[in-house]
Amino acid sequence: MLFSVDADARPYAEETIKKSRFIARLRRVDSEAAFTAFLADVREIERGAGHHCYACVIGEDEGTRIERFSDDGEPGGTAGAPMLAALHGRGLVNVAAVVSRYYGGVNLGAGGLVRAYSGTVIAALETTELRPRVRAQLFRLAVEHATAGWVQAELRRRGFEVVEVAYAEQAVITVATAEPSGLQVAVAEITSGATDLVHVGHVWRER
């Protein structure tokens, strides 16, 4: 199952390891532009840090998902990749993590850096509730204008999400559901079998 963080959440953690301070911040990001803005904000807030390492996962669908990470001057593979692995370990999408490091004068070694960067991200995740992401299927059905309002009300009463209603020769209702078989039964009952459902795609929703 996929998860994300609440749009208003501000997961944060700070750890001091052998005199180096590691400050992790996570945010919900739904686009590369949102991630870029978040990274710029962190760099401004923590201007004195020597490194701003990051990892992000944007998009629920594997075919179009965007993943980015950076060690930002730390030895290769010791920061960004472990941070990304921490996000993968929780099944997170549409989220970015930035860890700012203030060097304390003691070298941690590759293994120490991996543990510090991934561990600070995990600590930040412990400060917030993760939200499950559910893949809902989209269907359309066409009904007469005179019954469109009643059909919408019945669908909502039965717990289905009416996404859109377009009026042309008929009223075309778009519905999102994670239970297609249940929607099929409901539409058959509501319309007495007079209309068909057409599958038109999918959308992701928080549960």
Automatic annotation (TrEMBL):
GO terms for biological process: regulation of translational initiation. InterPro entries: EFG_III/V, Impact, Impact_N, Impact_N_sf, Ribosomal_Su5_D2-typ_SF, UPF0029_Impact_C, UPF0029_Impact_CS. Residues 18-124 form the Impact N-terminal domain. One of its GO terms (cellular component) is cytoplasm. It holds the Pfam family Impact_N. It comes from the Bacteria. Residues 141-193 form the UPF0029 domain. Belongs to the IMPACT family. This is IMPACT family protein. It comes from Mycolicibacterium diernhoferi. The lineage of its organism: Bacteria, Bacillati, Actinomycetota, Actinomycetes, Mycobacteriales.
